[in-house]
Amino acid sequence: MTLLNSWVASANAPDAPFPLNNLPYGVFSTADSDPRCGVAIGDMILDLAAAEDAGLIPLTEALLFDVPFWNEVMEEGPALWAALRARLTELLAEGAPEKAELEALLVPQAEAEMHLPFLVSEFTDFYASKNHATNVGTMFRGPENALPPNWLHIPIGYNGRASSVVVSGTEIRRPWGQLKGPNDDAPRWAPSARFDLELEMGAIVGTASDGPVTVAEADAMIFGYVLLNDWSARDIQAWEYQPLGPFQAKATATSISPWIVTKAALEPFRTDTPAREKELLPHLKDCGPMLYDIELEVTLAPEGKAPSTIARTNYKEMYYSSAQQLAHHTTSGCPMNPGDLLGSGTISGPEKHQRGALLELSWGGKEPITLDTGETRSFLEDGDTLTLHGAAKGAGYTIGFGDCSGTLLPALADPYKR
Ligand code: MN
Asked: Which of 156, 257, 259, 288 could, after both became Cys, cross-link 227 (CB 3.0–4.6 A)?
C-alpha cells in the first residue's frame, strides 16, 4: 500500500496524519452547526451530514450522519462500513468529478470543536501487556508473584464505567479517595497524591453479539480504534483493589482521542502477537496476525511549559489482541453491543523508556523521571497536560490518530465539608 492522492492537498504529505488512506470518523460542531458526523481529510473535515443531504452518499434510506454519534453506522454492519469507505475514497480521490460540490462542504479542523465520536454503551478495561503486568505485579506483590497464574491463559479485565469516558481536551479533576500506605495504621480521606496516566488503545465494538463468539468473529465485530488514557489514582488503587480489582481508582475519567481510525485503515499494519509461553485454549488462539504496528508516544507538559516525551512504545507489544479480549468477554454469554469500548490495558515495551505509566517509569516513585525542563516527576502534578500520540507508518504515508490530551486540575476542597 502506498499513498492514495486526494484533491485535498494537505492530505498528501508523507507525514500528514489524515491522508485518503486513513479517513477516520469523528463528531464535530462549528459556530454555525450542531454536532454531526464528519470524516477527516488532510487538515479539513468533510461534513457528512451535508454530503448525505446533497445525495452524495446514497447508502441507506435512513439518514446516518445528522446525529452526534457513529453508533447508527456501526449497527449497519461490516458491508455498509466497507461501502461507506469505498464511496468516501471515490469522492475524495484526486480527479473526483464531485470535487467542486464537496469543496463547499469542507470545514477546517482548526475551526471545529470535536466531541465524543460515539455513545459509549459500556467500558471494559484489560491488563494485557506482559511487560506492564510484570512491572506492576513486581511492585505490588514482589517478583515471585508478579504475573498471576491466570495471566498467560486469559486476558484479565474489569468492567469500567462508560459514564466516565470523555473526549480529548476535557480537563481532569484530581480526585479524593480513601488512602492507606503500607506503613499507615489506618486509612485516611485525602486527595490522591499518586495520580497517573495509562497509555492504551481503545477498540470499539461495532456489532452486537449474543452468546460466545470466536476470535475471528470478534475481529469482524470491531469497528475501529482510538487512543485511550485510563487515568489512574495509584494510592486509591493499592488500598482498594483486593480482591475484586480497581474501582474508584479508575472511575474519575478515561480520555479518548476524537477520531475513530477504522480497522480497514489499519489492515496494512497487521502484525503477529508475541510467542505464546503457554498454549492458549482453542477458543482464544490467534487466527492470523492479530495486532497492529502503531507507534505510540506520551508527552507531559508542566503548566505553561513545553512538553517532554516521557514514553515511546508500540501497540505490537501487547500479549493479547482486542479480538482475543472481545472473544473472552463473550465466553460467559455476556452480550456485547455497538459502542462497547475495550481498553487494551497499559502498553509497555521491555525497555524503561517504553513504559506506558508513571507508576512504572518512576518505579512506584522510587526513581523519579527528569523532564526536558529539568523538573522531575514521580506522579502527575496539578497543571500537567498529558498527550498521547499514535501513528502507523506506511510507505510514503501515515495513519495518524489525532491527539488524546487532558490537563490535570487541582483537587477541590474536601467535598464532604459543606
Ligand atoms: Mn487501564
From this structure: 257
